[in-house]
Amino acid sequence: MTKRHYRWIAVAVVLLLIAFGVMRALSARRAQQEAVAAAGTPKVQSVVELAATDVVKATTREIAQGLPISGSLKAVNSAVVKARAAGELQGLTVREGDVVKAGQVIARVDATEYNSRVAQAAQQADAAKAQIDIAQRQVDNNKALVDQGFISKTALDTSLNNLAAAQATHKAALAAVDLAKKALDDTVLRAPIAGVVAQRLMQPGERVAVDAKVIEIVDLSRLELEATLSAADSVGVRVGQDAQLQIEGSSRPVQAKVVRINPSAQAGSRSVLAYLSITDATGLRQGLFAQGTLGTGSASALAVPLSAVRTDKPSPYVQVVENERVAHKPVETGARGEADKELVVAVKGLAPGAVVIKGSLGPLREGSAVKFTKPPAP
Fold first, then answer.
1. Is 47 inside any structural domain?
2. In principle, which of 82, 94, 119, 354 could form an S-S bond with 98, CB 3.0–4.6 Å?
3. Are strands 47-50 and 369-372 parallel, antiparallel or unpaired?
4. Tally of CB atoms within 10 A around 93
5. Does the pTM exceed 0.85?
6. Residues 328, 205 within the same domain
7. In a domain, 366, yes or no
């Protein structure tokens, strides 16, 4: 590269530096002009417009304290019908959702073999009965012969023993008849409780073994909630306490009552199971998830809606209206519960009657002016 080229490159660099300096100076001057213009323009005060329904007064309220609970609904009475005899399953017609009555015949196991066993046991009992008759006649004959002195008493004792053995054999045969009849009766499967079929685990024509599950029946007239409580929460729970539940898929609240508390904690988790009876189980199903609040007591305190307490600062606070401006008041929260069907929390640090802004409005800048809208004309 020649000296001439180096000279042109140096000239270009100098020109770029001069252009950069000029642009920087113009930018600084423009920023200074904007700052002066902004300083000369008066600031517009922001105004927050609120409706009467956007605020609530902090008042002393009766707080119904409660314990949050959840769990699945479970039928108090349920049964699994099992096969008590092995064989081919016949006559199973009920399916999931069918209503059955207590004692209703659900299905049968092929009884051909069991009928034969009953007949065999009955014939063996008849044969044993015939042996008793033979032994009895022998005893009668030997008694007559002993009385006449033709035979010794030892022969009579032997015949008496034979008679006793024949009688014992007959009793054993009668017991075998009862066992055979019991096995025959076991071929008929009946519903032990009234309810609704929840599962059908076998199909007609299948060969079932002893204790094989055939159907499951649940009684939906009585449902209960099995709630898991921590060790600390279980201390305040008592039999008879009421709870209000919200069932999955149902819009109506359901009332429940504690009827039993497990006396032992669960191994590992150390939790305690409490069982709540559902007052009205109409339309509910086993296995539905339920959650709600168990009433454990009440307290009277200065309270605000729980949603009004904000936690986006290091300490909780509420937004209040003071002197027609927004103010942030730090509070100390206490007991939580329901008051007039609203979730509230007891607070310290507010004066009674303070106008609290509801939490649905979100965070507002502290010091903003507040203007209330006029109510609509009737």
1. no
2. 94
3. parallel
4. 10
5. no
6. no
7. yes
